[in-house]
Fold this sequence. Notes:
The chain is α/β, with parallel strands linked by helices. It has helices at about 10-25, 45-55, 75-80, 85-95, 110-115, 125-135, 160-165; strands spanning about 1-5, 30, 35-40, 65-70, 100-105, 120, 140-145, 170-175, 185, 195.
Amino acid sequence: MxxxxxxxxxxxxxxxxxxxxxxxxxxxxxxTDTIYGVGCxxxxxxxxxxxxxxxxxxxxxxxxFSFICSDLGHLSIYAKPISNPIFKLMxxxxxxxxxxxxxxxxxxxKYFKGKKKTVGIRVPDNSIILEIVKELGNPIxxxxxKDEDEIVExxxxxxxxxxxxxxxxxxxxxxxxGGNVPSTIIDCTSDIPEITRQGKGKVEL
Length: 205
């Protein structure tokens, strides 16, 4: 299924339709402020396994999937306490094209965490996915939609994404053309934050 949602004013009925699919353990493809993502409700173990299979990952706990949150309120639920400077940095950058690597706490589902001690947190600057996460009430597990093409790493056209991946997921959201530059990753697991991948987000540390 392919549905159109406009970022300027996400239709409440369409948002509820997406949330209902997620609550039923569905997997969706959705727009962000960078590239299109594939994901599900973080608390739905079987759906998480489906996302892993789509990404060709055999062990979820060894993956680099991140969480999409609607705001920084989810931080204390899934991450260990952070220092004031790190919180200020996150507040300055989010919503935005950044993934923050933080120390995970025990609330992160075991099937996701495994022996991994970190979690990637995203709050994209995209009203479609933020509205969906807000309505859902849980973070969405997130992975990038990559292309097999050697030249074009990320598919940006939602209709092409639907053609390629529509049979593997329950819903593709057409939120307009996506970008092809991923988020900037900032590792905040030590006292001094470090950019481990320079992507779309720009910030002075």
